Amino acid sequence: MGSGKAERSEKAKSKGNKNTPLLTNPKPTKFKNKKKHHPPPRLGGSKKKPIPQTKNNQPNNNNNNEAEAVVPPATTSQQLRFFIDEFQSANGVQLSTLELESIKDSSFVELSPQLGGQDVEHLGKHMKAVFGSSWKQALSQGQLVEGNIDPGSPAVLIISTSALRCIELLRGVRSLTKECHAVKLFSKHMKVEEQVALLKNRVNFASGTPNRLKKLIDIEALGLSRLTMILLDMHTDVKGYSLLTLPQVRDEFWDLYKSYFHQRLLQGDLRICLFGPIPNDNELRGKKRRASDE
């Protein structure tokens, strides 16, 4: 009798004690077997964010080379209109009818879109195409020829805004300069005397900034007897400035151009290559309106 009562008492205590776990059919805890909710997949794959458009209606890609590759090179007539507009605007002059007639479409170099974009990686191919069958003799050979190949007189003169950009552009023609090294002509970390010594050899490519180039031409260290093309770097820096828009450098370039290149262009002895995207006609007209309003 006593033992039966004791057992019933223990069972009652067990049922009444909420803290005592049951041995059969235990309820699962909340963190066990919890299924994660996944939203149903979208039809057609993940939705991509639209690529922001630039003012030239081109994708604003952080990779300059990829973005520039889709920009078609400007035609010679587009380059002509742009260059004359910039010349007259920057110098506050109006070219005469005779001068305008002397500067023809053929005074500018039109790059082939089949050879790639207007970036450093394709520059060498563009230069070979411009010089045609004579590219090796003009751009790659390294021997001086008396009466024909003068020392310190490049066939191509690359003009840019900064030392870093000058070096970057020369990287694009590295395959053409194995026998005849290109010459760097800027003021950063380089003395005039060092550059004068370099210009005593044959030079096919020279790359520099306007102020230093003019100084070397003034002292007759940099010659122009072989010069057939000047390549103007039209690419913009991180602040949006280019060779023809960076205030001080722009003024130095036009000073150099008027002193040594303009007459050669009028005579048909020199061609200009605008390397990089240039503003279209609508942007040029907008620029003229803003200038007249000021």
Automatic annotation (TrEMBL):
Q: Record's Gene3D superfamilies?
A: P-loop containing nucleotide triphosphate hydrolases
Q: Which InterPro entries match?
A: Cms1, P-loop_NTPase
Regions of biased composition (Basic residues) lie at: 29-50
Instruction: State the residue spans of region: Disordered.
Output: 1-68
Low complexity: which segments have biased composition? 51-65
Bias type Basic and acidic residues, positions: 1-13
**Entry's Gene Ontology cellular component terms:** 90S preribosome; nucleus
Name-wise, this protein is Protein CMSS1
**What does UniProt list as this organism's lineage?**
Eukaryota, Viridiplantae, Streptophyta, Embryophyta, Tracheophyta
